[in-house]
Amino acid sequence: MKNKFSIGVFDSGYGGLTVFKSIAEQLPQYNYIYLGDNARSPYGDHSFETVYQYTLQCVEWLFAQGCQLVILACNTASAKALRSIQQLDLPKKYPNHRVLGVIRPTAEVVGDFSVNKKIGVMGTRGTVNSNSYPIEIGHFFPEVKVYQQACPMWVPLVENNEHLAGGADYFVNKYVAELLQQSEQIDCILLACTHYPLLVPKLKAFLPAHIKLLSQGDIVAKSLVDYLSRHTEIETSLGKEGKRSFYTSGDVNIFNKQASVFLGQELLASQVKLS
Q: Which residues 6+ apart lie within 8 Å of 270 measured at CB?
């Protein structure tokens, strides 16, 4: 009997839907299960141990739903939990399952977008404090200098649907200015949080025209296409009915309303208890 596994996509909240959208557009044939841990978000200011425990719990829930492959569509979870899950948990308990993140595939290509080899990274405090991007980018592009800027107010702005309102201008301009003060040579900015693509219209208003803005959705999707082409044992086990299921640990009505902003379409989620 042929297995029919789904691809799991996890985020602490809504932002991972921007990654899911790109993945589903490039690989529409597969079955997907999305889980947002909205009841415990945001993850950005939690400790490494807490993020690891929360993320592992969500990954194991997705495994139990029939996901052999899980994408951590969350920079904080990728920075604080992915390595531990890959090295400690999968070999012992889930040797036939795989968990991938968003940092490595981004680091593998981001240096190609900068002429000056000066890149800005804007993310949550958790992602910035982990130093994951300078380390990973340095492996692939040792000549690139990475400048980081934490943007703690951006996720609340997005999740409260204030990201395009006039009140967002102050915090968008504030963090952009603080990043560019670190170097006038920055010519590429990576939005290292899956919420931030919704701020692109505002960001373009405060950025010099020559600076490239990179969102992660398309990058991660292209990386997944390549991954599945190289791991046929996983690809052939995936269900290909184009099914989509959405789950949240938070309030379903709020999730459905907010998620439509990120996904660009209406959806109906179900609630799960994670404890």
A: 245, 246, 247, 248, 252
